[in-house]
Amino acid sequence: AADCCPIEWLPTELLERVLTELDQTSLGRCAQVSRLWHQVVMQPLLWTKIHIDESNWEVRSKNLVDEIVKLPQLLFASANLTCLSLDHVEVCLVKSLVTLAGRRCPNLRELRLIRCGMSLTTKSLNSLLAGCPSLSLLQIECKRLQYAVDLDCAPLLTKLVQRLSSLKVYIDKFGEEFDEYYLRPFFGHVAEFPQLASLSIQIIEFSAMLQLLARMPSLTQLELNSSLRLCGADLLLPRSLPPLRHLSICCELDKDAAGIQELLGGFPQLQSLQLELDSAGRSLPTSEVIGILRILPANLTDLRLRLYAYAELNDTEETDWAKLLPPRLWRLELEGHKIIQGTGLELMKSLACRSTLAELKIDFCTDALLPALLSQLPHLRSLCITDCSRLTRQAWANLRDLQTSAAFQCDLHEFEAFGCDCSLCDEGVAALCTSPIARGLRRLCLQPDRCSRQLTAASLASIASGCPWLTQLALNAEFSDAELQAFCASYQHSVK
């Protein structure tokens, strides 16, 4: 049109502002358009975040070698760089890159070193300490700690950690033999880490880690991963603990849940809690599961409980869910070895009273429970059922009755159902899509464990007519290219 012009005709300053909104991959593609675009894209101002990934050997050998060699030149002129991520970069290069980043990138805030070999040495740590005063996040992933960190420069690493607000450490080969090499280089004998607000780390002994927490007064987010059992008898809580708001624990339970109950009692300000507990095949009494739920902080809004133990919570009137679950939950996930037994309707009654609940993920469902979940939680926006094996076809047919329900208020945006091999067919999808549930769906995931032959192009037609706002669809079935093209053509917007 006469009032249009190619984007490269824009003033260079304006074009640079537009390009600052693109990610690294998109910038690289723009650089290949023409020589002019290459000159504009290579302005250091645009490269505030750099991620180099050499994990794919084919890509590395063919495409990245020249760019890797040029990376020091880019860092040398990147005073505006704020985030640097190096993934599987060769050992011979990574040391010089980290050192150069410390010297030439004064605004660096985030540094991620993922399987890069020896990258934190005396030289590179001194460079970061002297040249990157704003560095606040350090992430290290490696097979063994001594492969990534020169343990002789532990005091320098401890000094760097004192400045950080976020530390993430992931070690593949992790066990008791690495105890003295693991925590000491990061935390040493420094009295306090006043800036540290987020910590994600693997641990060997809970009590030793808890003593360290007393030296982190600003810590609000903690993620602990341990392969050892959490035993209440060995747990010593210090007098002073940080005001944690978010806690994630993955560990193996001892003979009972006393340890986890005592640990949770030390953090009454928790708002978000993720527990992944494994009993290693031992039976866990129902009373222990109830004990965990009863100790939950009253202000908890986000609860994700994955209990891989042989325990049951019978969904009966005697199970007082109203007292077991915090009153202000907006997200709830209950997963494990089918912990909840029964219809689930008693749990449903308790959840319906919680006007704040917006996200729900459970690993069971029954014919009576499915329509209740989809109709009686007025503020629910996301529902995920990870195991629909108990459902029959009647469960989906019951959704048609929701059309005549005057009390229907749900405005669901995301619905995921897994393991629905036996119950879901074209008629079930049609019942779902003709119900009021489908009107507001943005994301729909119907995933039988095996590719379903019961779902045909008729299901696509039902979804297209009943889900006008859909943007993402996952359907484990076989369709022809023509059927998929016809489905996408029925929308004026893109559907992935």
From TrEMBL:
PROSITE patterns: FBOX (PS50181). Residues 4-50 form the F-box domain. Keywords: Ubl conjugation pathway. InterPro entries: F-box-like_dom_sf, F-box_dom, Leu-rich_rpt_Cys-con_subtyp, LRR_dom_sf, LRR_FXL15/At3g58940/PEG3-like. PANTHER family: F-BOX DOMAIN CONTAINING PROTEIN, EXPRESSED (PTHR38926), IM:7136021-RELATED (PTHR38926:SF72). This is F-box domain-containing protein. It comes from Macrostomum lignano.
